[in-house]
Structures are given as structure tokens and as C-alpha cells.
Amino acid sequence: MPVALRRLCCLIFGLVPVLFVTAPTLVCGQTDKPTATGQDNDSQLQAEILKLNQATTEELQKAKLRQLRKDKEKAKALVAAAVKMLGSDSGSKLNYNAITILGRTAQFVKNYDAAERFYERQIELAQKVRKSADSIIDAYENLILLYFEMKRYDQVIGTCERFLDLKGPEELERVKPFVIEQLVQAKAKKGDFQEAMRITQGLLQLSENSWYFLRLKGYVEREAEKYKDAIKTFQEVLEKLEEDENLKPEIREREIDRTRYILSALYIDINDIDQAAKQLEILVKKNPTNATYKNDLGYIWADNDRNLDEAEKLIREALELDRKEKEKLKEKGEIDEVRENAAYLDSMGWVLFKKKRYKEALEYLKKAAMDEEEGQHLEIWDHLADCYMALGMVKEAVQTWEKGLKLEDLSKRDSERRRKISEKLKKARQALGEPVKKKID
């Protein structure tokens, strides 16, 4: 199975994360008459860009990407120089390998316009030069995932439709159902639930009501906030998986775990904490070295003032498991530094807050919020502000809430949290004697 197809198959309930976490947007300017030093630098950058042509294997490309990740400013400069090359005669010197690396690097530095150009060029090269099914699939997948990251769902749909119109080898035809799946996800994300469900029902009929596309039905139901329907659907998915003897045991168990994890989130959506915890307890018992399951169970208990000692124990174990795993990845050269998970730090801070150990909690919550890549979540900043308030640091709480409200919503629950923060912020400002703002941005 091609690498791209394996990645496509994972796009069930959420999106496959891109290779890099995101970084600040690229802003670059050019002088009309660059100095000799500037000209030398441009030449050096162009030489480095052309060397990317030689990354002919997936492993070499990953190595180049890891190297670029180490120096974000240089990565930005490289992308800017490559964009200039693409718009000149030199652009023809960039082959499929270089364009692929440049597209992912541009996405890494959040230069989305550049990433879009590179991925469109990747598609062109895949179709006209390489004429390889795997290359075409990879190129389209990169562009689709970019549009998902940008939340440009109309462009996701359009790109999926372009792929579905392709005529080619059997490998392309085999991938098309999974591309239709992404199209359905995009339609659901933009609120076109009726059309998304119509297409999903068609996939279910073609696949004889398989658990795979039944799970897509559950995805659409959850996006439509039909949580009880989604729970019923995922329970059916679980039953089908447990009865499926054609799947390899390791694949079946992995998919069962994934389905239970989704169910736990759905039970949270309807505020059924007992059932959410039950699913996670099963997962923790079955996967004692999985940091995510331990963290999530600990957090659910802490957030609902239950089993606080056990919750703290689970979250500490999650932090330790995550650290050990990252140390292994660093030894293999797959990551550059061992950095604590912001979500787990937030969980640790929150359980300590619930135990009224505010000073200890503050250190964890500050570390979580200061993570520029993973800590920019409204929930984390709300927890930090609550801790400041508990310590009597009202001014700091106000500043934290104000900054938190500027962050992008990452889940549907964030809108309700935003409303509650606005109420808390109003009271905190009154405590400081500040005039209450009529509208909070």
C-alpha cells in the first residue's frame, strides 16, 4: 500500500497532522538594489534549494525537513528565495523532490500562499513528469491537508473533486473512496450535513455497510451536533470491529481502541462523565504505557472534581511516559529537543488547582501557556487566569484572559468557554476598578 494511501486511511475522525507543527507567519521584504552581501546570500540560498533535488527517497526528504526545522528563520528565508525562483526561469530547475520539501517547509512556517504554490507545482510535476500514481496521490494529499489546516473547506472540496476526475492507473481508483471521505469531512465542517450524509450513505451501500465508512457517518453526526446518534453509530462500529475476523489482530485492536477513544469524547459532549471515564479506564488498562489515555482520564476526573489523588498520579505518569518516548525519538534523530507536552502540563496544573495547591499549579500552567506551538489554546489560558485569581493576582488574571480571548477556537466547546470567560473578566475588571468594556474582542 502506498505511503499516501496509508495516511489517507487515517483521516477518519480528525486530520492527519502535518509533518511539522506550525510557526509564525513569514513576512519578507526586498530592497530594490540588494547589496553584494545580499546577492551572495541569495546565491547561497539558491544553491541550498537546488541541493534539495537530490533528496530522492522519503528518508532523505525527512532528514532535510528535520534539518530545516532546526532554524526557523533560515527556513523562512529559504521559502522566500524558492518562491522567487519559482516565478523565474530558475523555477524549471526545481524537481519534484525539492518542491515537495519546499511545500512542507512553507507550511511549517505558515507561509500558506507559498505552500499552496509549491503543492500545485508538485501536482503538475507528478502528472506531467513523474506520471506516478504514488506521486500524484502524495501531491494531492498535501494540498488537501493544507486547505484543511487553513479551514478553507471549499478548496478542500474542489481539490478532492479534481482528484476524483482523474483518469489513470488502478492505484488512483483504489484511493478515490478515501478522497471522497475527505470531501465528506469538508462538507460536514462547512455545515453541509445533508449532502455529507447523502454521500456517506452511498459509501456505506457500496462497501456493504462496513465499519470504516460507518465511522464516517458518526463523524458527520458529531459535526452536526447529533451526539446521541453519533454515540449509537460508534457503538455499532465497535461491535462490527469486534466481530471482524478478517482484520489482522493488531489492526483490529488498534481500531477498537481508536473507536473507544472517540466514544469517550462523545460522552463528554453530552456531559456523561461516567461513560467517558469508563471508556478511558478500559483503554488505560489495555494500554498501560499510553500517555494520552492516562492524561485524558486524569484530566476528566480532575475537571469534574473526582478521584483527585488518582487523577494526579495518572497525569504524572503521562508526563513521564511522554518524556521517555521523546527521549527515544531524539536518540533516533526524529526530533531535535525533548519538550514537555503542553496539554499534559495543563492537566497537571489543573489537578493541582483543584487540590488547592495554587502555587504549584501556577508553575505548570505558566509552562503550558508559554509553549508557542502547543499552548495557544483558550482552555489553557483560562486555567492560568483562574489560578492567578485564586492567588489574588487579579491584574495578571485579567491580562491572561484578555490574551486568551484573542486565540482561535479549536473546538465547539470553546465558544461556551469564551462566554464564561467574558463573565469572569467583567467581574475581575470591576474588582480592579476598571471601566467595564461593552464588547470583548
3D structure, described in words:
- This protein has about 450 residues and is mainly α.
- The chain has a domain at about 1-205 and about 215-225: Tetratricopeptide repeat domain (Serine Threonine Protein Phosphatase 5, Tetratricopeptide repeat).
- About 70% of the residues lie in helices and about 0% in strands.
- The chain contains 21 helices and no strands.
- Helix 18 packs antiparallel against helix 19.
- It is globular, with a radius of gyration of 24 Å.
- About 40% of the residues are buried.
The helicity comes to over 70%
User: How is the main sheet built?
Assistant: none
Distance between the termini: 48 Å
CATH superfamily placement of the domain at 1-204 and 214-224:
Tetratricopeptide repeat domain
Report the average pLDDT across residues: 89
CATH class wording of the domain at 1-204 and 214-224 = Mainly Alpha
Do you know the CATH architecture of the domain at 1-204 and 214-224?
Answer: Alpha Horseshoe
A few lines on this structure:
The protein is mostly helical. Helix 1 runs parallel beside helix 7, helix 15 packs parallel to helix 17 and helix 20 packs antiparallel against helix 21.
Blueprint of the fold:
Layout: H1 3-9, H2 36-51, H3 58-69, H4 72-86, H5 96-108, H6 112-130, H7 133-149, H8 153-164, H9 170-189, H10 193-206, H11 211-223, H12 227-243, H13 249-269, H14 273-286, H15 291-303, H16 308-331, H17 342-354, H18 358-369, H19 378-390, H20 394-404, H21 413-432
Tags for this entry?
single chain; 441 residues; mainly alpha; Serine Threonine Protein Phosphatase 5, Tetratricopeptide repeat; 21 helices; globular
